[in-house]
Known about the structure:
Order of helices and strands of chain B: EEEHHEEHEEHEEEEHEEEEHEE
Domain Formylmethanofuran: tetrahydromethanopterin formyltransferase Ftr C-terminal (chain B): 153-304
CATH architecture of chain A: 3 Solenoid
CATH topology of the largest domain in chain B: Alpha-Beta Plaits
Pfam families (chain B): FTR, FTR_C
Oligomer: heterodimer
Largest interface: A-B, 22 and 18 residues
Function (chain B): Catalyzes the transfer of a formyl group from 5-formyl tetrahydromethanopterin (5-formyl-H(4)MPT) to methanofuran (MFR) to produce formylmethanofuran (formyl-MFR) and tetrahydromethanopterin (H(4)MPT).
Distance between the termini of chain A: 54 Å
CATH class of the largest domain in chain B: Alpha Beta
Number of helices of chain B: 6
Number of domains of chain A: 1
Strand order of the largest sheet of chain A: 3-1-4-6-7-8-9-10-11-12-15-14-13
Structural class of chain A: mainly beta
Domain Formylmethanofuran: tetrahydromethanopterin formyltransferase Ftr N-terminal (chain B): 9-150
Subcellular location (chain B): Cytoplasm
Amino acid sequence: xTGLVFRLKGEPEERLDLSPLIPERLDGLTSSEIQKxxxxxxxxxLKLGDVFDVSGADVSDIRFEGGSARLDxxxxxxSKGSIRVEGDVGFRCGRAMRGxxxxxxxxxxDLAGSAMEGGELVIxxxxxxxxxxxxxxxxKGMSGGAIxxxxxxxxRAADRMRRGTIVIDGDCGLDAASRMIAGTLIVGxxxxxxxxxxxxRGTLILAGGAERLAPTFLDCGPQDxxxxxxxxxxxxxxxxxxxxxxxxxxxxxxxxxxxxMGEVFLPLR
Amino acid sequence: MPVTxxxxxxxxxxxxxxFAEAFPMSGTAIQITAINEKWAxxxxxxxxxxxxxxxxxxCEGGIERVxxxxxxxxxxxxxxxxxxxxxxxxxxxQVTTRLGQCILTCPTTACYGDYESDQTIDLxxxxxxxxxxxxxxxxxxxxHFWRMPVMEGEFLCEAKTGMTGDGVGGGNLLxxxxxxxxxxxxxxxxxxxxxxVPDVIMPFPGGIVRSGSKVGGKYKGMMASTNxxxxxxxxxxxxxxxxxxxxxxxxxxxxxxxxDAVAKAMAAGIKAITDLGPExxxxxxxxxxxxxxxxxxxxHLKDLLP
Lengths: 269, 306
């Protein structure tokens, strides 16, 4: 059985809510039923068949051929199977996903991986703001799983992150890991603003350095730690090569403005 | 003691038509790494000290093998260690106590689980409080670790390790020779062969025990006492299992994470002893049992012949 393919007919004229297109909700539907699913966000009552050509049948292997920054909520609540998007996606890709895998070959909008609990989200381009963060009003962001962004990320990635791993190969925007509760954020490029501001626990490995740290982070000096070696190896096996190799790094403890049990690792140079 | 029939004679070594009677045990495996092999072995040796018999030591433990850096979790030299106990609770108490006193304390070491199972016992989760609130929990790539600041730097320990309730304790061989030199040589050869089998340990000194026991004794409270039927000095005064030419008997006890591992180790030992032959090694191989009524695992020597 071949995977289920949604081929984008052209740039959508409105933002699309693609949250119904996960294996859990598509299982048991016929092709015509799938084509009648409502995915519009305006009064026009747009149906899936108006925007996509549908082929294939295996709902556990979903592929979008063609992407757009208007494709919102892809993989929302995903718990199993895989979704691959050939192109860009809009807001909330992989939000609240609990398992399975999502790959985006282009870039993603804001709130990618927001509050995700498990599974793996790979964005081969860049990600918008609040990667893995909470929606407005939520008390915690990502609480499990793994995100890899091969480009850069917008501001406040890993905001209120509770658990899991985020790897950003490029730069990240202002104040990454703000209010972090726990978990691990790894950044290969420069971390702008004041990363880790008000973090309680958790680990930031900023291989490309930080623009600056808040004065409430305290220098613990260079540290040669097995955990860095182990993380480089284990996360590398899970998500591909990471931008640090386990060599000694300078450790800062903080944010002492709050609990102070977090840590930021910076290169020795 | 009834005369034991001979199942086979191989290269001049006779093998009893008998069986080793073994018991279910809870078992686990951990991996200890360090800056070099010396310190990994130092920690493992300390941790597995006084762990020969579960009756008196609380558990049985031993070094399964030395691991190359390519085989360990953190790419450093390491050692795989197995422990066995009567039950999961007793096993966890022994392992965590020994972990806290022998691995946490040993310079440069780290400790990881090395047995995959849904059943687990605590490792770092049990000793993390030593860090007095400075402990750090890290979960990544499906694993959970505890980091504990120590004066040397940081002790890294996986939170839990897997355990099995289907381990086997008490697989054994009795190695009978003309004199102690022959018995020792044959036993040493057997232990070396058994060390190549995964998932087993031989918990006694050098893998060999000279004071094999029977259940109970004449004195009140003795759970075990000398196995007089196999004591060569008592041949004339007790119901002996030994023939005239046997002058010394040694035993190898084998614990394994699976019955199959124990059987393979016994088979490897029998082959090594028979390959050595009776001139410099053993005349006869037997096995210890309690009539077959106590332990559910029966390893018949005739099924393990080379």
